[in-house]
Design goal:
The structure holds two protein chains of two kinds. By secondary structure, chain A is of the alpha/beta class. In chain A, about 35% of the residues lie in helices and about 25% in strands. Chain A has a six-stranded mixed beta sheet, sandwiched between helices. Chain A has a four-stranded antiparallel beta sheet with strand order 2-1-4-5, covered by helices on one side. Classes of the chains: A alpha/beta, B mainly alpha.
Amino acid sequence: MKHNMIQTEKLIFEYEKRDEEGNVIGTSRAIDEVDLGIEEGQFIAILGHNGSGKSTLAKHMNAILVPTGGTMWVDGRNTKDPQELWNVRQSAGMVFQNPDNQIIGTVVEEDVGFGPENLGVPTDEIWKRVEDSLKSVGMIEYRHHSPNKLSGGQKQRVAIAGVIAMEPKCIVLDEPTAMLDPDGRKEVLRTVRELRHRKHVTVILITHYMEEVIYADRIFVMDHGHIVMQGTPREIFSQVDTLKSYRLDVPQVTMLADELRKRGLAIPAGILKKEELVEALCRLN
Amino acid sequence: MIRDITIGQYYPAQSILHRLDPRVKLVGTLLYLISLFLFNSIPGYLVATIFLVSIIRMSKVPFSYIMKGMKPIIMLLMITVLFNLFLTRGGETLFHAWIFTITEEGLRTAVFMAIRLIYLIAGSSLMTFTTTPNALTDGIESLLHPLNKIHVPVHEVAMMMSIALRFIPILLEETDKIMKAQIARGADLESGNIIQRVKSMIPILVPLFVSAFRRANDLAMAMEARCYRGGEGRTKMKPLRYKSRDRMAYIVMAVYVVAVVVIGRYVPFHIWIF
């Protein structure tokens, strides 16, 4: 079998529903028999509407949640195995949604050093890693700043640096841009894309913004705990109506191209960028 | 208003005092505070004054900034002075009217007590002015490390302190936001007597607590995701190491304490101003 970075088999996760006295009155499945394979070095996007189970899936990759049924392997390690817990967490670093609630240090560089400190990395090596990871997210000039004075996008970049400093094989970003303004979102996404080329890590981006996933190698679409679509961005975005049925908005360009195609213009399906649409329209004459 | 309090805050500057090891500053401050109670004579105060003034000079913290930090304790200072002034009896009576009597001894105690209190606050706030909160917690953690043997969770307490310090500005900002949101909905926070005003804080405190718990939950998850598992097996990015200047500082402290005790206690310099 090919070695996959993340592999799941019939992964199930159930929440217990409780009434006001705390008695269990039933269970609800956040993830329902998901089979998923993510190869090393890929840029993966997981799309889904609120409550589709995408964040729950992300938390499994870091062993914050363990499956109630089925199995998940991260870099060949079973996340259910308590002895592998810290190895799993080191191989799959995680960036969360709220930039304020994941920065621990009172100075940028100390926060980036927090992960390596926990791993027991020697002091000299920590300094090297901190410098290197701050450089790779373009935040090195802020190393002595207080995180409170940074913008949301900058805070998320610091959080990403904090994960990189632990030298993971895979970075899971759980809606890292949901609380940012458009500029901050662009900033974070650019950082993620650059990082992938520089550090050769697997990137798993969880989001509900469709514009963010057009650079992904592969997209998984989740709905009600199932994986309902998978493929390259082009394959996914050529099915505008199916996407809409999962309450996902396609990028405006794709939408426009799709509408034009439906009206009988000879435009290929799955247009992702403005330039492509312009080119396709020019070719019509 | 909360932002105006300078006491206990860090004053960024480049000085020898800022660069000292936090442990030196903690131990030094403690020694200094104790030393203030070991003498009771003018020569002693002279030594303490010279020491304090030269340390303030070295720290490059402006004198006015330290004075600003005194403001919140003015009330306390006044009360102490008044009580000492009127209630201490002894020596010649300097002033007497109705039930108020000021004696020589009372005046002396009042003045010395005021000086002592001011020096106490000035000395200890100088430590926080020159030490970043993180360095301070590191210093406390390292100094209290021996307590680990009797199962005091020193690392955990220090971690809690530094997290608390990190979240103070965030929670302040949040309080501000909630207050504005509640005022926008017609909440009246300004008028009424003290009980009404305390009651009107409830709509601010409840959301603040809810959000603080949510933040704590998120932060705990983020810390675990970054492999935090307590103090064991943890290395330090900025380990505390004594340098030669720290040893010098210890020597200076020792010299000061000896000087202030010897001069303050045994030098016969009884030219009382009063």
